[in-house]
């Protein structure tokens, strides 16, 4: 593994592919942290296994497990899934596994961003975060891929979404937060994103989902479903604190254009009714930093936008809510060539995120760009929308 | 990774290649155990790094490091070497990393033997050994290779040597020891070796090197250098306790034939003068099971036979002994197409083994059988002796 410090993906001809481009596989982390996952993580592990198995129907899945949980992971996961031993502080593969970039020759490299548990000593969620922060580089080493060292810039994978055609979606609440890169202004942050993701336009949504303790990651409120098209988490309930937040995002998106100059088609994805912590669930969480990590009645940042786009499926959360079916139908319409698999995700949500947060895709190596442009008929199992 | 319980390599057409056949790479483990490696392992790690870098000149090297030592391993090893996180109880890759077998189509599988720290509760060297015993399977999973489950048979990689043509060398002292498979007799052990290594003849040397705490592994006293040819650790000093041991092996080999019916050409490799522990070295070793692991004046099982055959080099130990140069010349003559690299190995020897013990080769995948048969001229860097 070569560690690249003196260049950027953009300068070297690498770009971050969109999640709907073809994957080689997916990385996940086996959960065990007792202040994140209730009652020792038994329910969370079952939910993670369901997600991993759903994705493994489309692409190779690697699950990283600590030495303590390795045997357990190996026995809970089917043999088509690879389990590797790797230490971490928690299980958010999206946020600290590598962001992968790819060039026209189909070569893959990783980006190793800095990670400080969503805000470091300012408003981070746990301490320490050293093992999480090592994971991107460890994975690139494991995969024999060169890696860009950008640890001096704090960024989580869940705080960015790209369309693969020059546009990146972020939230102001997260990227301009005081716990990440307080010495950088918006223009400086844009330059780093453009240099490392090889994009030319950053779309700044004002906020994310109410109560999202990641300082409102974009991946919980808005996601590209195709170039020029997004889904946006939405509520019609004007009394909900989320209403104004989603509305401000909608208005921003309706007035914006992407890197190609296209206006953006926004598909509203309903939110479930507020999901709140029970006292019984709170009793099953260890304290962190001397405090309870959840309180009874606390609203969780539930959103159907937090789905994963696998090669042949969409793996999305369900909450036992009347909107589960409607959200599933909307995603089925938007991804007509992928099977939508809905997994009951309350046990993931309690940890503070959802299916997109616990997954990180690896793009295919090799030249497969034509795949993105191919007409729908060319490959019945593959999403091939384009504007 | 598929775990194969109901078949054997032999039944499936797989065989263990000889070490002098072409390698894909080599596995090593980063040392840190404070009752094995003096003064916290600083000197041992430097010696291991020299071995890894020497081998990396010929083939891909993967070094497994614990979570505690990962950063240190990554910074001590060059970027051409891959470092992966993996727990172990100690650093003997030969003895508990997979034995690899290969079929005519060039497919590779692993064998996961049982490991009990060289004798379990009878005369094993430490407790517990659970993490060592997990490594073979973990590595096969990491490498996406299917693995034969043979954990019900205790065997270390250092206790076998094969010629790749149907012959396996072992020692009676080790394979018939009471701490390994006391319920099996010699005939039953031979059957397992034949089934799993795909050999048809087992050569049973009576013993190994005096004081070798592995119950005298064969890889410290005798090794194939080509089909029909071995080196044997030898002393001319008739007063040395080793003299009768080596002489008995010589007499056995001179009267034996291999699987192809050939007599065996024995090249004597001189032993260094006895290497003994100093009081200062003993002071730097933590106790194990409440006892000192070494005592001042204790003779270590030093032997030049404990070398590794890399694709383009022989990596062999040196002891600062007058025989270092002679042993190097003998191996240079026996491997004329490989560079012989001698590494001062006292800091490895103190741990209880040597260069062969801390390495495990991975054969190349793909059909390269012609490589073994090719005349010497075909590839100047490659060993291609045949009878």
What do you see in this structure?
The structure is a homodimer of 387-residue chains. With 387 residues, the first copy, chain A, is an alpha/beta fold. Chain A contains 13 helices and 19 strands. In chain A, strands 1-7-6-5 form a four-stranded mixed sheet, with helices on both faces. In chain A, strands 4-3-2-19 form a four-stranded mixed sheet. In chain A, strand 12 (229-234), helix 9 and strand 13 form a beta-alpha-beta unit. The radius of gyration of chain A is 19 Å and the shape is globular. Chain A starts with a strand and ends in a 14-residue tail after the last helix. Residues 369-387 of chain A have low confidence and may be disordered.
What topology emerges from the helices and strands here?
Two copies of one chain form a homodimer.
Chain A (H helix, E strand, L loop, with lengths): L2 E2 L4 H4 L10 E7 L12 H15 L3 E6 L4 H7 L5 E4 L7 H4 L2 E4 L5 E7 L5 H4 L6 H13 L4 E8 L6 E2 L4 E5 H4 L10 H12 L3 E5 L16 E5 L2 E6 L6 H15 L9 E6 L4 E2 L2 H5 L15 E2 L7 E2 L3 E6 L4 H12 L4 E6 L1 H4 L10 E4 L5 H5 L14
Parallel strand pairs in A: 1-7, 2-3, 3-4, 6-7, 9-10, 12-13, 17-18
Antiparallel strand pairs in A: 2-19, 5-6, 8-9, 11-12, 14-15, 16-17
